[in-house]
Amino acid sequence: MSEDEDVVPVVGIRGGVIVYVGESETEALDKFDDEPSIVDLQGHMAIPGLIDCHNHIVLLGNRPGYHTPLENAYSIADVQNTYRLRADAIPSGSFITTIGGFHPNQFNERRLPTLEELDQIAPNNPVFVSYSFGGPASTNSLGKAFFESLPEPPSIGIDGSISSGVNNGKVLLALRKQLTFEDRKRGVRDAMAYAASMGVTTHIDQGGFPATGTPSDGAAHEDLYSMHLPWLSVYDDDAGIIRLRINFLHMDDTPDVPTVQQRLLNTFKFFGDDMVRTGGIGEFITTDYAGGPIFTQAAQRIAKAGWRLEVHSLTNTDFQTQIQAFESISANTSIEELRWVVAHVPLITPDYIQRLKKLGGGVNLSGWQYLAGTGPQAGPPFKDILAAGIPAGMGADGMQIAPLNPWIHAYYATTGKNALGQQINPGQQISRQELLRLYTRTNQWFLGGVDEQRLGALEVGRLGDVVVLNKDYFTVPEEELKALRSILTVVGGRIVHHDGSLGA
C-alpha cells in the first residue's frame, strides 16, 4: 500500500530508503546500479512498518529470566505449548518468565496455570508467570523450591500460586538480582525479535518507575539511569533490528524538580540516528501527574527548553487539570509546535479534545482495556477523537497491563470487545483503514524532529520499513485479526524477521 493508500505491486528500497513505488518491476530495477535482491511476496499484503507511539519495550528488554510473551495464548494448553517450545530452546535450569502483558481473562479457563501444569511442560526449567504490575502469579516445582530457599521467602501455595503485592515483589526482586548485563542484552534482542515478528518497527518508549530495590517494586520499576544501557550496547553491536525513540520518565516531588532540570540541562532532544534516538519527557514528569504546582513548574521548564512532553490520563478529571495547566503555560510560552501529548484518554470529553487541539496538542490511543476492561463505555472514544481532527495515533502501552501485539489493539479498536468477548466500547468502533492509519501515517506526528515525514508510509524518499502479513488485514474475520503476524519484516531495507513462508 502506498502513501495515498493505493495498492501497488512493486516497492524498491536502495540504501535503506524507498526509491520506487509503483506498477513496473522494470522501472524499479532501473533505480539500482547493480542487481538487487528480489523478494516475491506471493500475493501477501505488505504495509508500512508499524509505529507504536506509546509503549514500554525498554522494560520488556530488561525482564529477568527468558521472558516469554503470553499475550497470544488463549488457553492453558496454549500456555503449555508456548512454554514447551521455549524450554526446548534455552539451557536447562534457566528461568522461563512471563511478567505482564496478558491476563487470565484471555484464557478459556480464566485462571493461571498451576504448578502441576507447568511441571508437565518444563520439568527442567523453573517457571514464573505473573500478570499486571504485581501479580498474582504462579510457579512450578523448580521455581517454588528456588523461591522458598531465599533468606526471606514468599508464601507460595501448594498449587504454585503466589499472591500479588509483597509476595510477588519478593520473587521479582530475587530474579532481578540474578540479572547480568549480558542477560539484559539477550532480553533486549528477544524483545526486538518479538516486536519485529508482530510488524512493529518503530517504538516510542515511555520509561518506567524508579526502582527502590525492595519487594515494593513491580513489573514497571527499573533503574531509570541504567535501563537504556543494554539497549544502547545492542545498537553499538550493530544488532539493533527495530527503531527506538526514548522518552524520559521523571517522578519529582519538590518544586525545584531536580531530575527534570538536570535532564533538560544534560540531554539533547532528538539526539541519535535513524535506529535509536532521544524523544521527549514523559509519560510522567512529577508525582502530581494530574496537575498541581510541581507539575506546572516541571512543564514550564520543559516548554522553555523546547522539549516534547507526554502525560498520562486514565480518570475523568486528570485530562482536565493537565490541559488547563498546558493552557496556563502556553499563555507565556507557546507549545504549539512542541507536540505535547495526553496519553490513553479513555474518558476525555469533546470540549477538552478541542481545547487541547487549539494548543497544538495530540492524544495517543490504546486498546489496553481489552484485557481487563469493563463497560459500558470503556474508551477511548476512538470515533469521536477522529471526528475532532486532533492529532491522534495508536500506542499499545505494552507490556505490563496491555499486550504489545498491535493486532489485539486493532481488534479492540474495530470491534469494541474485550478479552471475554463483551462489548465494552459501543459506538466508538473505527474502520480497519482508520486503525491502520493510526498505527502508521498519523503516528509520525508523535515522532517529530527529523523523523517526521520519513516513516509511516510506503513512499519514495521515506525509510524502507515494510511488513508482509500472513493474511489480508482488510478481509480476515474479526476474530482472526488477533492472529495476524508478520511473515517478513524489513527495516531500512534490511530483512530483520522472516518465518520461512516465502521460502529462502
TrEMBL record:
InterPro entries: Amidohydro_3 (IPR013108), Metal-dep_hydrolase_composite (IPR011059), Metal_Hydrolase (IPR032466)
Amidohydrolase domain segment(s): 38-497
Pfam families membership: Amidohydro_3
One MF annotation (Gene Ontology) recorded for this entry: hydrolase activity, acting on carbon-nitrogen (but not peptide) bonds
PANTHER family noted in UniProt: IMIDAZOLONEPROPIONASE, PERIPLASMIC PROTEIN
UniProt protein name: Amidohydrolase 3 domain-containing protein
Biological source species: Xylaria grammica
Native organism taxonomy: Eukaryota, Fungi, Dikarya, Ascomycota, Pezizomycotina
